[in-house]
């Protein structure tokens, strides 16, 4: 699978396992540029924006 874009997953609260589950589902078929943010959405977006990276909601 060719690398097209970076993908960031996040969880809605500290107890949620969702970001890990989504990351596993993305990496299983071959996506390699997947990053899991342990924090919530706001902190993840602030991290990305602070690094000068674009964000997109789907």
Description:
With 58 residues, the protein is α+β, with helices and mostly antiparallel strands. The chain has 2 helices and 2 strands, in the order βαβα. It has helices spanning 18-27, 41-50; strands at residues 7-10, 34-37. Strands 1-2 form a two-stranded parallel ribbon. The protein starts with 6 loop residues before the first strand and ends in an 8-residue tail after the last helix.
Summarize the structure.
With 58 residues, this protein is α+β, with helices and mostly antiparallel strands.
Descriptors:
58 residues; flat; two-stranded parallel ribbon; 2 helices; alpha+beta
Give the helix/strand layout:
Blueprint: E1 7-10, H1 18-27, E2 34-37, H2 41-50
Parallel strand pairs: 1-2
């Amino acid at each position: 699978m060719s690398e097209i874009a970076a993908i960031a997953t996040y969880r809605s609260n500290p107890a949620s396992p969702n970001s890990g589950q989504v990351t596993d589902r993305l990496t299983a078929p071959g996506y390699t540029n997947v990053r899991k943010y342990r924090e919530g959405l706001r902190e993840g977006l602030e991290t990305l924006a602070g690094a000068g990276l674009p964000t997109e909601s789907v």
